[in-house]
Amino acid sequence: MTTVKMVAVDMDGTFLDDQKQYNRSRFLACYQQLTARDIKFVVASGNQYYQLKSFFPEIASDIAFVAENGAWIIDRDEELFCGAFARSDVEAVIDTLQNGHYPGLRYLLCGRNSAYYFDGMEESWLVKMRHYCHRLRPIHQLDETGDDRLFKFALNLSDDYIEPLMADIEHLHQGKVAATSSGHGSVDLIVPGHHKANGLNLLAQRWGISHDQVLAFGDGGNDLEMLKQSGFSFAMANAPDRVKQAARYLAPANNQQGVLQVIEQMLAGEGPFASPAG
Questions:
Q1: Annotated catalytic sites, by residue?
Q2: Cα–Cα distance between 151 and 80 in angstroms, integer?
Q3: What is the pLDDT of residues 11-20, one digit of tens each?
Q4: Signal sequence: where (predicted)?
């Protein structure tokens, strides 16, 4: 029977409930058991590293983060990987976003040092974005980002325009920029191949772990590669059908602490984690 050696969790809609909370005492009890068994715990999210770290104040320096959808990978405070777009590709994407027909489009440009927004971005949306980006600052023009490594665009727009925008990105920036949707009107533009599965692969190689020893949880389009790659992949009950189809198993919903239920099941050797009789 395959033994789990890594647990990787998406955050919004997966590990966190709809109030952006999780049961800390229940999780820390699980985490103590994971540590005792030398099972690695990885946070794999589209969100900013500085924000993700704030959810785990007790253990942030002991775990790994696949942040920004895989663009930035940190293990026990050590940077393992930090991707970046070519500056010319950043400029080309900004041109597409400004000149395309995407009513209500709002976006941030995300880098290692900070996330950025251009002057005039809607303040009510920025208030919401500050929950996801603990470092966020205004710029007038791109060169104010200095030598920051820019690795993601975080877009928000009407669901009606998501597919046309993603098709435009694929057509106009093929091979240089990839579009992934996490649902809820959100689209991330990333460096092709710098997704969560790539991040987990780098960590697995570092730790000598095979993909069939990975227990992964997700609920969005940006989790698809990770779920397809991982031996024990669970889509949340609240995930859309295409995510459920990519996963091998189904976990209870995020509002039912589904991730913790499955981790406890794994620790107890129950369900799909049970050893075959004899």
A1: 10
A2: 15
A3: 999 999 999 9
A4: none
